[in-house]
User: Which sequence fits this backbone?
């Protein structure tokens, strides 16, 4: 079964995608994550191979406390870009939210060695918070 190319079906181009992205970013900047969420749900459908859309959708779900939905979106993003540190960190947080402590700790221990301090420092903090 092939995927529907919605951009082609709608006869849309990058301009319409940018309009949706700009609206979504404006809501994120205002902290209105619940309003930004459907914009990114649409972007994931319109551009299924763009990891940023799934990464952001997962982050929004995480921010709203929807851990299962966050994991679903983050897993999709990781299928496209497997080693994206911020996505892996958000996945770690979602695992902890769901009470999957061992899985979260395993991933946090991997991320504590990231070169990007914004990821490794948060991973270390999560280890301190969740390790017994």
Assistant:
């Amino acid at each position: 079964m092939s995927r529907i190319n919605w951009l082609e079906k709608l006869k849309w181009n990058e301009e319409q995608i940018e309009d949706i992205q700009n609206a979504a970013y404006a809501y994120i900047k205002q902290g209105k994550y619940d309003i930004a969420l459907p914009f990114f749900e649409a972007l994931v459908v319109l551009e299924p191979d763009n990891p940023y859309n799934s990464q952001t959708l997962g982050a929004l779900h995480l921010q709203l406390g929807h851990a299962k939905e966050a994991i679903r979106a983050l897993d999709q993003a990781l299928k496209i870009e497997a080693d994206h540190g911020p996505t892996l960190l958000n996945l770690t947080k979602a695992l902890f939210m769901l009470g999957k402590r061992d899985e979260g700790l395993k991933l946090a221990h991997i991320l504590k060695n990231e070169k990007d301090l914004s990821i490794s420092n948060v991973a270390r903090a999560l280890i301190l918070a969740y390790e017994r």
